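seq as requested:
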Amino acid sequence: MIKYLLLFFFIILITNTNANNKDKIIENLENTENLNFKFEQNINGKIENGICTIEYPKKIHCEYLKNKIMVSNGKSLVIKTKLGYYRYPLKKTPLNLILDKNFLINKIYSLNEKIINNSYIHYKILEKDNEINIFFDNKTFDLIGWQTKDVYQNLNITFFSSIKKNQIINKNLFELPLQN
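struct tokens:
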């Protein structure tokens, strides 16, 4: 009997901790209007670094250290490099879902979390032929990265550092760069 009571309390403790993490992540997302951070991105083993700003909903501006810019104005996604100019409808990319905090909040309510190395909280989202793995810090409950496949089906892993929330940002930051 004592074994069953201990098991019952252990299950309640784990369930309550998971619910508590979800509540903190959701509250944190609800209170976040924008994020500014350094990033490291690994696409099929090729590592790139830079800085990004996200403004909810669906806007992102990233400057890579190697003369590359990625910008979404909420409708289109542009990647501009020395070699070319690529424009995609945002809704055809996983970023359409990742940059929508209301979508993330609604999904997190129904997902099971996985704690990784007691440092990260992981959620796996399966939506519209996309598998999106999102990661939150286990102490601050900040979004700290994601793993997806890009439009060319390349594995894309992005992790954040030096995160700042709710900074004053220039609204022109999300204007799409012009094609040369």
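The CA atoms of residues 78 and 87 lie 4 Å apart.
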